[in-house]
Write a structure and sequence with these properties.
- With 177 residues, this protein is an alpha+beta fold.
- It has a domain of 107 residues.
- A three-stranded antiparallel sheet has the order 5-4-6, covered by helices on one side. Strands 8-7-9 form a three-stranded antiparallel sheet. Strands 1-2 form a two-stranded antiparallel sheet.
- It is elongated.
- The termini are far apart.
- The relative contact order is 0.13.
- About 4% of the residues have low confidence.
């Protein structure tokens, strides 16, 4: 038997720790309480949860936006006599159409109207020397792709000697914050 009165205060602490370990009592230690590392407890009264500990302005490893993309528009206008006008890089569909009409009308042609509009891509116009009367349009991510689409459409309509008469891109513009 242990004489508790004879134990010094240092030995009492050791004895108390030994009794706790032998009885299976293991206290929960940690600044986050019931939450996993990197989180802290929130809520209470039976509605508890955990939330991430703020990084204090440090990077979380997730990408952050540095700006945004602005759409740009282009248009092609045509008149019955074959006159045309074009625009690219405009900030709105209506602005692109107005510019294309202005160019077509400046040739003195009557009956100019917007035939094609596009945004954030390239456009091509193709005509045939025989077999098909009219203009075929194609769009694509690059001018060569748009040219191919316009030429294929021209040929599929029976056009012979199809050739691209116009191609242009209206690329989006990146604006930094």
């Amino acid at each position: 038997m242990i004489d508790i009165a004879a134990l010094r205060s240092r030995d009492v602490g050791t004895l108390f720790a030994a009794v706790l370990l032998l009885t299976g009592f293991v206290p929960s230690v940690g600044a986050e309480g019931r939450c996993p590392p990197g989180q802290y407890p929130i809520g209470g009264q039976g509605a508890g949860g955990c939330a991430p500990i703020p990084a204090g302005g440090e990077s979380t490893g997730e990408p952050r936006a540095t700006g945004y993309w602005i759409k740009t528009w282009g248009a092609i206008s045509m008149a019955p006599n074959g006159a045309s006008g074009t625009s690219a890089g405009k900030l709105s569909k209506s602005e692109a159409g107005k510019e294309a009409l202005k160019q077509c009308n400046s040739t003195g042609a009557a009956g100019c109207r917007v035939s094609f509009t596009y945004k954030n891509q390239c456009v091509a116009a193709a005509i045939a020397s025989a077999g098909f009367n009219g203009t075929r349009f194609g769009t694509g991510a690059t001018e060569p792709l748009a040219n191919g689409v316009a030429l294929d459409d021209c040929k599929s309509r029976g056009g012979q000697g199809c050739e691209v008469i116009y191609s242009e891109c209206s690329d989006p513009v990146f604006k930094s914050y």
